[in-house]
Amino acid sequence: MSSKLLILGVSLAALALFIYKNKAPKAPVITATDNSFTIEIPDGFTNSIADKNTMLSQGSGGVPAEEIVLLQYKGSKISGDMVYATSTPFASQGEKLNNIDEYIEFMKAQTKTDNITFAKVEGSTDEMASSAKIDRRGVSFYQSCRTRIGRILTMVCVIAPTANGSGEVDAILKSIKFL
Length: 179
Description:
7-stranded antiparallel sheet, about 180 residues, alpha+beta, about 25% helix, 10 strands
């Protein structure tokens, strides 16, 4: 009789855990301003798309403001976490990047540092993952990105002063659904 009660108790505990996990609140789903993807951004981040010109003046130059399609901060805008995305047309003639392996090799050739890695996203034919350590103003940051190629080059990145590959960074990047 006691073994049946033990099995019943374990089964009830497992059921309670399943119900709890499936009712746990999910991060809000946000759509890029150009509707190119959705992403789950955890609580604590603030929509700052109106500040994209300020972001450009603080060191991410080379990207026109109209190509920034997502900008979220958590904590300080100088030293906190940031999620941003850009959508850049590849060519005005309708050309298209269609070989992710060639694009990865191109990016490796253009990169002049060992602090950045590029890899094809598993199960994808048009996505790349990259990560880098960035030292700016005496502070180290880690940037992790997912990039999708095609007629539009869409890059979604998380910059954090915490260790590369943290659970929150991984969860944000895995939540991206390109549309």
